[in-house]
Amino acid sequence: MKSTQLLFLLFISVAAWAGGPAKSNFTAMEVNHIRVKTPGLFNGRKSFSIHLDSIKENEYCFPLPGGKVISAYGARRGHSGTDIKTKANDTIRCAFDGIVRMAKTYAAYGNVVVVRHDNGLESIYSHNSRNLVKSGDIVKAGDAVGLTGRTGRATTEHLHLEFRIDGQHFNPNLIFDMKDRTLHKTEIVCTKAGNRVIVKQNLTPKKWTMDIEKAITEGIVFKGGKSPSGKQEDKVKTKAKKKSYITGLHGSGAAKMKAEFRKKRANRHKNK
Hints:
This protein has 272 residues and is an alpha+beta fold.
């Protein structure tokens, strides 16, 4: 009897595994509401970064290829996302790899899909005529998650796209260039400020970073200082400038006339 029960349990386990990938266990709050915190996201730290600049071309997708923005983030009071339009029942694609946290009808959003991504982002796709995924589904960048519609509070068929961090919405333009439909290759810094999260692009230029080995072997030349060879950079520039002045190469008609005069004056004894 015990061996029969054991075989039965083994059969059930194998059947469950064969049904597809393991589903994440979301709470009832996570499955039924959009604005929820991501467990352990900040984990005692005040800020963290999302490196969009390290995401490869095949690891992201603009959610509505060919779409045109009809209402920008914050364009009207309470507008928490960007409205993008193409045509009715157009395919909405997932922005990054992730797992579907929520897929249902939800108040003014109508049919909505929320995807939680490994980098801490959550993407929201709403007003769908139809959702093509369900909570717990694992999705890849470019996978179809829904079809454009006008469910919920909407006046035309379109995609209402949101991005959130720990439940806080922010401008999708920090992620995608909405005009070119391309990913911003930048670093996104997310900072906890009380109950809010401030999301900004890190615009610190990288061109000032210098290779340490190169600095050791070649030295560092500061403006107005001397190069490792001991020659002053401004003297070289002065000589080049002087040659340009003498030959009239710096451009104006008067300069060329004066250069011609100087040439004739220098050669005045050669013809005698």
